[in-house]
């Protein structure tokens, strides 16, 4: 986890800007619990980041099927699940990724995927 922040006094209350980079989605609950009463928390995600660590194995399977363009019924048949169960998994993934459509999920996966033509060692140089 990486953190950084700055404080700015504008108006009556001091404002603190904090940037946290982590794969642990549970960090948000800890931060919310630590805030003083009356504090406001605004959360945003960095575009193109897919928090794989926050997803269950089944949700990662569902993501793969979404990338293939399968419907809920097709995913259900492929994974031997009810399409209602698939719908619930898709909704949970949308919440985790802060996405409003299936297409947005697939687009974020594509943005976050490494380019097959580049090697990770080359990308750092």
Characterize the structure shown.
The protein has 125 residues and is of the alpha+beta class. It folds into two domains: 2-34, no CATH class; 52-112, Arc Repressor Mutant, subunit A (Orthogonal Bundle). Helix content is 46%, strand content 13%. It is built from six helices and two strands. It has helices at 27-34, 57-67, 72-79, 83-97, 102-112, 120-123; strands at 2-9, 14-21. The chain has a two-stranded antiparallel sheet. A hairpin with a 4-residue loop joins strand 1 (2-9) and strand 2 (14-21). Helix 3 (72-79) packs across helix 4 (83-97). Residues 1-5 and 118-125 have low confidence and may be disordered.
CATH architectural grouping of the largest domain? Orthogonal Bundle
Mind summarizing the main beta sheet? 2 strands, antiparallel
Number of domains: 2
Strands of the widest sheet, in order across it, are 1-2
GO molecular function, one term: DNA binding
Keywords: DNA-binding, Transcription, Transcription regulation
Organism: Paracoccus limosus
Protein name: HTH luxR-type domain-containing protein
List keywords for this structure.
alpha+beta, Arc Repressor Mutant, subunit A, 2 domains, two-stranded antiparallel ribbon, 6 helices, 2 strands, elongated, disordered C terminus
Summary of the model, kept short:
The protein is of the alpha+beta class and 125 residues long. The chain contains 6 helices and 2 strands; from the N terminus they run E-E-H-H-H-H-H-H.
Would you spell out the secondary-structure blueprint of this structure?
Elements: E1 2-9, E2 14-21, H1 27-34, H2 57-67, H3 72-79, H4 83-97, H5 102-112, H6 120-123
Antiparallel strand pairs: 1-2
Helix pairs in contact: 2-4, 3-4
């Amino acid at each position: 986890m990486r953190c950084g922040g700055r404080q700015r006094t504008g108006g009556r209350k001091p404002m603190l800007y904090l940037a946290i980079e982590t794969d642990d989605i549970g960090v948000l609950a800890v931060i919310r619990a630590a805030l003083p009463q009356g504090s406001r928390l605004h959360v945003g995600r960095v575009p193109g980041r897919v928090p794989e660590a926050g997803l269950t194995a089944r949700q990662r399977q569902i993501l793969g099927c979404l990338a293939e363009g399968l419907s809920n019924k097709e995913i259900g048949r492929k994974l031997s699940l009810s399409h209602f169960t698939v719908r619930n998994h898709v909704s949970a993934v949308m919440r985790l990724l802060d996405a409003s459509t299936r297409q947005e999920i697939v687009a974020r996966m594509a943005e976050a995927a490494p380019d097959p033509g580049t090697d990770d060692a080359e990308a750092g140089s």
